[in-house]
């Protein structure tokens, strides 16, 4: 069942008796906990809200919590986090305990709402998962899709009394890379970036692309793009300035080198895929990056031959080895790269 649909029902006190929320989008998992909490009488939470560690709970304790009636409220909510049977481990529950619990789940009191929260994946082969799926509500909390993310980001900015146009929302999302194939960024990270940008912008003011770029966690990646642009244009002074600014801001040299190597690998792959007549969207999907990365790489590819790209990549590998073995300084290594390939034709 869709997360938004579940939350919409809970907000109007339309509760099922059994839920399972799981997945890697922890922000949504915690948001779900908050929504169930909000459905209770705030003055009676101590009596009617049980939050249980599912890795430590035993059968008797869990059944007692489920079967206890609410006090001065219409319902009681029992939240079990990381229940061991659902995660594929077993410490406190025997086979007979699990079998008995499965039977009891058929008869949860009408006044009890039982919610399992698993921070990560569940073992879908387990009888417990199948039971909840058949008799309750199961929701996987995964990354938001593009339009869902767009609406969520815009709404969060508006909640902070900050004006942001649709184009700026799209640019903000693009800069974050939340939807990148290999990104481990969560909505919690996105929310923190929204708070940072909104706080810098100020209440009632408008978020601009310049502000987003200035505060973007991808600023270092953007600087890498700019530096490679300068190398391709044979503009050594500007490339060295960008590199120096990154060093001044505390960016580790080995990370800078890693990002340079990564970008040249992407450039080489984009050149190959262009020869195969692939479209930018296809390239982005295959490489697991946003389309703007493909656009940058495609533009930069015009300034570097395949042989020069391979030479630069080999230089980076050799330099990293020399740096780690004390044969050359890290800063000098990058400065030499810039100088050498700004001279090369």
UniProtKB/TrEMBL annotation:
Gene Ontology biological process terms from the UniProt entry: DNA-templated DNA replication
Boundaries of every DNA polymerase III delta N-terminal domain copy: 19-141
This enzyme's EC code(s): 2.7.7.7
EC main group: transferase
Coiled coil: none
UniProt entry keywords in alphabetical sequence: DNA replication, DNA-directed DNA polymerase, Nucleotidyltransferase, Transferase
GO molecular function, one term: DNA binding
Domain DNA polymerase III delta subunit-like C-terminal: 221-341
Catalytic activity: DNA(n) + a 2'-deoxyribonucleoside 5'-triphosphate = DNA(n+1) + diphosphate
One Gene Ontology cellular component annotation held by this UniProt entry: DNA polymerase III complex
InterPro entries for this protein: DNA_pol3_clamp-load_cplx_C, DNA_pol3_delta-like_C, DNA_pol3_delta_N, DNA_polIII_delta, P-loop_NTPase
Similarity comment text for this entry: Belongs to the DNA polymerase HolA subunit family.
Protein's name in the database: DNA polymerase III subunit delta
Organism: Peptacetobacter hominis
Gene: holA
